[in-house]
Amino acid sequence: MDSLSDLDSLDGADVVVVGGGFGGLSTACYLAGAGADVTLLEKNEQLGGRASRLEVDGFRFDMGPSWYLMPDVFERFFGHFDHEPSEYYDLTRLDPHYRIFFKDGDRVDMVPDLGRNREVFESYEPGAGERFDEYLEKSKVNYEVGMEHFVYEDRTSISDFLDWNVAKNARGLSLVGSMQRHVEKYFDHPKLQQIMQYTLVFLGGAPTNTPALYNLMSHVDFNMGVYYPENGLGGVVDGIVELGEELGVDFRTDAPVTEIEGREGAFVTRTEGAGEFYSDYVVSDADYRHTEMELLDEKKRQYDADYWESRTYAPSAFLLYLGVEGDVDPLEHHTLVLPTDWDEHFERIFDDPAWPEDPAYYLCVPSETDDDVAPDGHSNLFALVPIAAGLEDTPELRSEFRDLVLDDIEENTGVDLRDRIVVEESFCVNDFAERYNSTKGTALGLAHTLRQTALFRPPHRSEAVEGLYFTGSFTTPGIGVPMCLISGQLTAEAMAERTA
């Protein structure tokens, strides 16, 4: 869809959108741009969903997503409304894109210069530089074909995939097999495999359970670049909200929804403390399971408790938000700390859930790029450790793991934080569940396993309630800020298709 004319059938419709994450914000903009009267109800005190912000004593933290990837998706989103991202926020390309500390004392930077990255690969394994080029060429093809024919087009049935045009475009794509097997075809060295697979964290998967198609993320990483938006990912939220207000969306915060009742043309959405809202349609960007199991009558559900229990959920996370005196060199804006063998960490997420003993984790230091996120003479830092969804989360366990993480940072990066921390907050499984009504406290949604990709994810249109739709990370195309933006378009298109 290259223009909003396809959505004209929604002109004049009254729509309530439940949830102000990127999926909800995107859907609201598309619907309002088509002439619908849109009210967005957000449970919490600020918009953005998991892209909330924490402000304490002069420090400002992005609480959730912190990587700005796939700039073309943002350009396409704003372009639908004849705008550009630069009208709402500026971008800075990071150099290096990120730094990796391996726990054997090795350190490597991935940078915008592909030639330098190629040399790094060659230094680990003879011939790997040439295979680096081949891998990126494959990932570029997967990205370009995959985005146009499998991401921006919502294929909801097997017959959609049997279409000749689809089969023709899919020829040569890495549609089956795992990322682990795919990467092993190109690189033997485990560190090179890790560099090509770290982005799976953003998809909520592991190398062994994520389809090889997602090698397209290496094109995103190396060819398209890693950016920092003005005011962080919260600044992107502000930009989309500003666009939504220009389009006429009525945003309501502190409006937790307690019940959705009715059908197309006669919905009532009840909230705690903000009243009742009547509409022709409802779109939920809230956790899909929460919407079905908690907000709908039992007879209006598509799935039962057994279905949701059988799903594979993306990891939760243990997060430490730290305001620190002084600098934190040699950490970069984006820093990864990886065991040389990370299989055990993934096993403790997906196979035998437990708090990791030798964690792989991510450190974000936006104060390396943005002077406004910390007071003078201080650094802004958060640590994110992926952990299994549904883990027991107690103050005692958090305290113990906090000490383990701080010790690990010092041992493997040389940065001692303990005596310099002036602000400290944690966020973990229970917080994801409480703040976002997140199933099992997942930080992301449904993992991108082969059985939970494309048409195997829950649908945008409810099969049980006419006029009820879903958007966000449980639906297609899936997890991540760019994917949730696209889900808003797919949801709006599904609504227009039914109302045309």
Q: Classify the beta-strand content into a percent band.
A: 15-25%
The CATH superfamily of the largest domain is identified as FAD/NAD(P)-binding domain
Name of the top-level CATH class of the largest domain: Alpha Beta
What is the first-to-last residue Cα distance? Answer: 15 Å
Tally the helices. 17
The overall average pLDDT, rounded, is: 92
Number of domains: 3
Structural class: alpha/beta
Largest sheet: number of strands, sense, barrel closure: 7 strands, mixed
Adjacency order of strands in the biggest sheet: 7-6-15-16-17-14-18
Point out poorly predicted stretches: 1-5
CATH architecture of the largest domain: 3-Layer(bba) Sandwich
Query: Which term fits the overall shape?
Result: globular
CATH topology of the largest domain: FAD/NAD(P)-binding domain
The value of Rg in angstroms is 22 Å
Helix content: 25-40%
Care to count the β-strands?
19
List the helices and strands and how they pair.
Elements: E1 14-18, H1 22-33, E2 37-41, E3 53-56, E4 59-62, H2 71-79, E5 91-93, E6 98-102, E7 107-110, H3 114-124, H4 128-151, H5 158-162, H6 164-170, H7 179-184, H8 190-197, H9 200-203, H10 216-224, E8 227-229, H11 232-247, E9 250-252, E10 257-263, E11 266-271, E12 276-279, E13 281-284, H12 288-295, H13 305-310, E14 316-325, E15 334-338, H14 343-350, E16 361-364, E17 378-387, H15 395-413, E18 421-427, H16 429-436, E19 468-470, H17 481-499
Parallel strand pairs: 1-2, 1-13, 2-9, 6-15, 13-19
Antiparallel strand pairs: 3-4, 5-8, 6-7, 10-11, 11-12, 14-17, 14-18, 15-16, 16-17
